[in-house]
Every structure is written in C-alpha cells, then in structure tokens.
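Q: I'm building a small set of examples for a reading group on sequence design. Run inverse folding on the following structure and report the sequence directly after it, with nothing in between.
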C-alpha cells in the first residue's frame, strides 16, 4: 500500500490567499488579527443600548453628569431580577464606543476606580438621537483600537431591529 503525501505548504498558501480575498471583499465581516494580540469584533447590541438609556435616564433625573456611579445606582430595580440580567451584564462594554467611561483615579497614569462609571457627551448625544455610532468595535487587550464605521447606527435603529420602541424606553 502506497502512502499518499499531501503538500501542506501549497494548501496553507492557498488558504491564506482565499482569506485575504474574503477580507478585501467584505472588510466589515472579517478581522485580521495582529500577531500576539487577540482582536475581538464586538457589536453594539440592543441590550447595551437599553442599558445606556437606563444610565441616561438616571443622569437626566437624579445625577450630576460630572460624577461617577455604580451599577447599583444605575439599575436599582433590575439588580437581582434574572429576567433583566442580560441588560446589566454587558453595560460596561459601552466604553468601547465612548458612551460611558470608567472613573479615573490618577491624573498622570491610566488608573480607574473599579465599578464606577460615568456617561460621556457621546453617550448623551447618542441617547438624544443627535449622533450615530459604529455598529462594531475592534477590541484588543480591553481597549477599542478601531471601529467598523459603515454603516453608522442610530440608537433608534438598533432598538427597532430588536423589536423595541425607543419612545417607550425613553419615557421616565
């Protein structure tokens, strides 16, 4: 019985060519990883938008926009209710779109106080339907290093896509 030898070098080169071609055709669907760093393609989800609206309403009715608060402050009615865990779970990922920001604790170094967050001007404008946001953030080592900007999404579009009504959610 003769053993058949497979030319793995040619297969590998062919796969790399096909991958490059796919990336060039649809750059918004494929992410080319940098060596050593793992890059994640993160989507701005309807649940994250609902969380942002809760934070926005908290600031609008109760808080000073120059101060930072915890999730217990933002979501007092939702914490402990398993039905709403998905809304609270990913709210910190809003930082990748500069919609919320962690509380800084040092003037010269990048050090944040764990668990304390504040809404940004972009977060307020996004909630007020003044600006659109990229649908995807490319995140590496906990920081967004770029965004896939086409097509930009308004908060109302993201919520409507999931069957939610912006006007109902924004009510006090």
């Amino acid at each position: 019985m003769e053993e058949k030898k497979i030319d793995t070098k040619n297969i590998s080169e062919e796969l790399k060519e096909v991958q490059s071609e796919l990336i060039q055709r649809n750059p918004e669907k494929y992410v080319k990883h940098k060596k050593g760093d793992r890059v994640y393609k993160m989507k701005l989800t309807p649940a994250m938008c609902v969380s942002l609206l809760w934070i926005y309403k908290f600031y609008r009715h109760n808080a000073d926009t120059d101060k930072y608060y915890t999730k217990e402050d933002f979501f007092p009615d939702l914490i402990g209710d398993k039905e709403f865990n998905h809304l609270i779970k990913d709210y910190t990922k809003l930082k990748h779109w500069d919609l919320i920001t962690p509380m800084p604790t040092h003037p010269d170094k990048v050090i944040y106080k764990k668990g304390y967050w504040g809404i940004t001007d972009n977060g307020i404008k996004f909630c007020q339907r003044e600006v659109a946001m990229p649908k995807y953030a490319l995140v590496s080592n906990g920081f967004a290093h770029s965004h896939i900007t086409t097509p930009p999404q308004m908060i109302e579009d993201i919520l409507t896509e999931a069957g939610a009504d912006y006007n109902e959610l924004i009510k006090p």
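DSSP finds seven helices and five strands in the chain.
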